[in-house]
Amino acid sequence: MKVAVIGAGSWGTALSQVLAGNGHNVGLWARKPEVVRGINAEHRNPRYLTDSVLSDSVVATVSYKDALLRARAAVVVTPSNLMRGVARALSDVVDGDFPVIICSKGVEEGSGLLPVEVFEAEMGNAARLAVLSGPNHAEEVVEGVPTGTVIASSDEGTASFFQELFASEGFRTYVSDDVVGVELCAAFKNVIAIAVGVSYGLGYGDNTAAMLMTRGLAEMSRLVVRCGGRAITCMGLAGTGDLIATCTSEHSRNRRFGKMLAEGGTLKEFSERTHMVAEGALACRTIATLADAYRVELPITDVVRSVVWEGADPRAVAQTLTSRPLTTEFYGL
């Protein structure tokens, strides 16, 4: 079948290659005309994953309507701050039962809504919506390196549809009905990856990184449970799996951004240098909306936010974490 992929960044490009490898035709929407030209003329994305040769079944366009023409499903892979605009654009083109899977990771600023909630608000019919998340670095997925991901939907049929659409020998897909848990894990792990990057940038070691990852997982679990998700989801691919990959890999943009912060860099410099969005930078601010609403304590998230947005000195705020009162390992679950 034809599948529309909305977003031609590294993740959208990689997922397009997965779908093409499964025999599907892909209409890939890209914002920049030079990306469209590069993909259609040379089968390479000139901005992202530039060394990877894409299937000729991937055809790029700057038109939503062209990407969606005769498509049977849409895969949304845009930065989280563009979610609502994308949802509105899709609602003008597709019918009320058209399946959409959201691969963007974040929380909407101001409203505190998760991506699937934004799409439901703009498009209706939550049963046709799904989300995809896991330890999936685009640089490896596009080359067929074995990986696993989780697809969550409130509707079993929708989850199964997308599970079969993406599943391959190198891209294993598992299903879940915990949409809230999967989406919050997806957003939260980027914040912890920034913290880990900062710690390495300050010269701390693997012990510190491991502490931040596991205490970050505890924060993640507290928020997921209070928002209506399940704690066990945090132990799966979207939680622990993605947390490990994002916090430890050199592919991780959020980890790299954190390290750059510790070395005196800024969010603007990172974006200009990489042409990428460090989703954790926005998430550490938007997650605070949920933390305040549900009265959940998130000390690592608070510290990351103070460094990214308030200009706090990384080494000074790191000391506020190590001087916190001692408590039991698991609380608030």
Structural features:
333 residues, alpha/beta, eight-stranded mixed beta sheet
Mean pLDDT: 94
Detail the poorly predicted runs.
Answer: none
Largest sheet, spatial ordering of strands: 3-2-1-4-5-6-7-8
The global form is globular
Q: How far is it from the N-terminal to the C-terminal residue, by CA?
A: 43 Å
- Number of H- or I-type helical stretches: 15
Beta-strand percent range? 5-15%
Would you report the number of β strands? 8
Give the H and E element order: EHEHEHEHEHEHEHEHHHHHHHH
What percent of residues adopt helix (DSSP H or I)?
Answer: 40-55%
Largest sheet: 8 strands, mixed
* Main structural class: alpha/beta
Radius of gyration: 19 Å
Structural features, described:
- The protein has 333 residues and is α/β, with parallel strands linked by helices.
- Helix content is 51%, strand content 11%.
- It contains 15 helices and 8 strands.
- It has helices at 10-21, 33-42, 64-68, 83-91, 115-123, 138-141, 156-166, 179-201, 206-226, 237-248, 253-262, 267-274, 279-294, 299-310, 314-322, and strands at residues 2-6, 25-29, 58-61, 73-76, 100-102, 129-133, 147-152, 171-176.
- Strands 3-2-1-4-5-6-7-8 form an 8-stranded mixed β-sheet, sandwiched between helices.
- Helix 7 (156-166) links the parallel strand 7 and strand 8 (171-176).
- It is globular.
- The relative contact order is 0.11.
- The mean pLDDT is 94.
